[in-house]
């Protein structure tokens, strides 16, 4: 098992945002967490990256306990995230943003040029915009940049927080097909989505979160046809 | 009559105003960079500058063994000896200020961020013990021993108070800054045989007039200030834009949480920021003593306030803004004091700030450490 989350509790101030959830991601899988606003999806992702402290429970990566590990050490292990809202550095160029993905491997990493070529082959638009400031990109381009930047760190597990948020339908389809392609290259993906239909179609397995709990779990295909899930998240 | 006076001294005022402004600018960099990464006004930065001037004083008198006067004359040096002395005292000031800034961050700020750091707790415990022991006896040796004994148990208490994940409220950082500032100034004030005295620094550089600029005398110390300041700022900009840690600084300034997610160790970035800001203040301290030949325990206060003003004037968080703000402030002070009289000097500095902020609330160049580019 690549990632295992056991009975995770996370607080935001005095409010318990995550009330004991457990889930896992196997090597080579795409797993989707779906749920409405306030279900605790983004908090879960930030906790896995290590920027939210865990109140109770454990997070294991390849069997190693990383519950209290510093965020930068988790990136070294191979966990990288394209965060909610994309987190593009507005005052850096596209190239500098991509460079930030290689931060843990050192500024003059030998494989950087090859990695950057690979990312640009996935997202040719980023190649065209390489010297432009991150803040001047469109929403879709920023999302590509966020995913590309996470790829630059050569992750084992890629965390994607709402990759389709605010994008036009055509771009959404493109982003999800890229996710599949990244996965076919051997990178496991944990994805959080409000666009449940697309997320479940893309994923091998899914978990339905509701206000801090795991309500349901199953394969992507099973959840897509589940009546309760359909009623709540897929518009009937 | 007055108009004639202004005309005649205009270029003189410009030359000395730019030199003063560059010193403000170097100190302003420390305020601006720390604000950029922490969104914190480091009010103790003025004392980081102040300890730098004492670094110069000690290196000149103790390391190089230069007296204030030699046979009733200034101890002028020349040639390679002079260059070595100037470089040596610059390095001393930068090391003292840089180390001061690093210790300041680890004792006064990092414990409050909930980083779960034992170093800060131990140093704080030792300092608490040292200060408390002075209430009972004045013997330094006895006090050090008392402090050493107290450190252990007190450090345990501090480690519990500053435990991991316990973030202090914003106001606590400000109070900690003011406390650290007072502690540093008072520690220097009570240091040495004469309390609260003005220390003269040996004048090793003969302040010859190098050339004329529209009738204004340009002295060699002004030229050194200008070259030194520009050299240091260029080096800083290159570091911020061209190195990995520099890019880490920009990333934390633009979006600290995303920077962490991508593997930036925020605590080490903050430490480097304090170190760089401290080194710049150290350089400024060297230039200050070069021009004014003196220092005092409270020398940082007004200069610190002015440099902070320069940082806000140019746009806080903006490296080039610090340069621009410093020069504007230095010139405004000089012109203003010539027109209205020297007693108005400080008033004019703050009026300029008020007027600029009325029309451009984010400063002349706007806020943005992240956007700093060569």
From TrEMBL, chain B:
Pfam families hit by this protein: BPD_transp_2
Broad class of where this protein is predominantly found: membrane
Protein's membrane topology: Multi-pass membrane protein
CDD domains per record: TM_PBP1_LivH_like
A biological process from GO: L-alanine transport
Residue ranges of the TM segments: 20-41, 48-68, 80-104, 116-136, 142-159, 171-192, 220-240, 269-291, 347-366
Keywords per UniProt: Amino-acid transport, Cell inner membrane, Cell membrane, Membrane, Transmembrane, Transmembrane helix, Transport
GO cellular component terms listed in the entry, alphabetical order: plasma membrane
Gene Ontology MF term list: L-isoleucine transmembrane transporter activity; L-leucine transmembrane transporter activity; L-phenylalanine transmembrane transporter activity; L-valine transmembrane transporter activity
Compartments where located: Cell membrane
Protein family (similarity comment): Belongs to the binding-protein-dependent transport system permease family. LivHM subfamily.
Protein name per the record: Branched-chain amino acid ABC transporter permease
Organism of this sequence: freshwater metagenome
């Amino acid at each position: 098992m690549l990632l295992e989350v056991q009975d995770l509790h996370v607080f935001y101030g005095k409010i318990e945002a995550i009330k004991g959830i457990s889930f896992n991601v196997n090597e080579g899988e795409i797993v989707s967490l779906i749920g409405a606003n306030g279900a605790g999806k983004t908090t879960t992702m930030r906790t896995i990256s290590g920027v939210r402290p865990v109140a109770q429970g454990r997070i294991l990566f390849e069997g190693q306990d990383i519950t209290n590990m510093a965020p930068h050490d988790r990136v070294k292990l191979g966990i990288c995230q394209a965060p909610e809202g994309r987190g593009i550095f507005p005052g850096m160029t596209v190239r500098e943003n991509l460079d930030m993905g290689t931060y843990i491997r050192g500024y003059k990493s030998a494989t950087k040029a090859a990695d950057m070529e690979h990312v640009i082959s996935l997202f040719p638009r980023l190649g065209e915009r390489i010297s432009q400031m991150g803040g001047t990109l469109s929403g879709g381009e920023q999302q590509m940049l966020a995913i590309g930047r996470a790829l630059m760190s050569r992750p084992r597990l890629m965390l994607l927080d709402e990759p389709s948020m605010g994008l036009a339908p055509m771009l959404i389809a493109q982003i999800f097909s890229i996710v599949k392609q990244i996965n076919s290259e051997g990178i496991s993906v944990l994805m959080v989505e409000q666009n449940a239909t697309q997320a479940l179609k893309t994923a091998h397995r899914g978990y339905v979160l509701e206000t801090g709990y795991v309500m349901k779990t199953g394969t992507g295909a099973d959840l897509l046809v589940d009546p309760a899930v359909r009623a709540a998240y897929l518009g009937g | 009559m007055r108009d004639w006076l202004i005309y005649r001294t205009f270029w003189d005022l410009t030359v000395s105003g730019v030199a003063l402004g560059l010193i403000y600018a170097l100190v302003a960099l420390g305020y601006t960079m720390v604000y950029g990464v922490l969104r914190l006004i480091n009010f103790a930065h003025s004392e980081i500058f102040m300890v730098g001037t004492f670094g110069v004083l000690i290196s000149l008198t103790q390391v190089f063994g230069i007296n204030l006067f030699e046979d009733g004359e200034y101890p002028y040096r020349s040639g390679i000896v002079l260059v070595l002395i100037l470089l040596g005292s610059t390095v001393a000031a930068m090391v003292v200020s840089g180390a001061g800034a690093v210790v300041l961050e680890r004792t006064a700020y990092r414990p409050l961020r909930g980083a779960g750091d034992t170093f800060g707790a131990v140093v704080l415990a030792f300092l608490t013990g040292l200060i408390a022991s002075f209430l009972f006896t004045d013997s330094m040796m006895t006090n050090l021993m008392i402090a050493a004994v107290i450190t252990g148990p007190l450090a345990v208490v501090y480690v519990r108070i500053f435990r991991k994940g316990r973030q202090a409220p914003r106001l606590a950082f400000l109070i900690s800054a003011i406390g650290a500032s007072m502690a540093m100034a008072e520690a220097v004030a009570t240091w040495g045989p004469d309390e609260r005295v003005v220390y003269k620094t040996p004048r090793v550089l003969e302040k010859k007039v190098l050339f004329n600029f529209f009738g204004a005398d340009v002295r060699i110390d002004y030229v050194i200030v200008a070259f030194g300041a520009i050299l240091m700022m260029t080096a800083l900009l290159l570091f911020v834009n061209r190195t990995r840690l520099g890019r880490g600084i920009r990333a934390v300034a633009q979006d600290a949480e995303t920077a962490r997610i991508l593997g930036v160790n925020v605590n080490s970035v903050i430490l480097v920021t304090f170190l760089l800001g401290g080194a710049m203040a150290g350089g400024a301290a060297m230039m200050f003593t070069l021009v004014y030949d003196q220092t005092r325990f409270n020398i940082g206060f007004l200069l610190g306030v002015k440099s902070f003003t320069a940082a806000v004037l140019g746009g806080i968080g903006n490296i080039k803004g610090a340069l621009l703000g410093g020069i504007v402030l230095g010139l405004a002070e000089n012109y203003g004091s010539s027109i209205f009289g020297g007693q108005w000097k400080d008033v004019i500095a703050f009026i300029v700030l008020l007027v600029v902020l009325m029309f451009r609330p984010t400063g002349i160049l706007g806020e943005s450490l992240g956007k700093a580019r060569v």
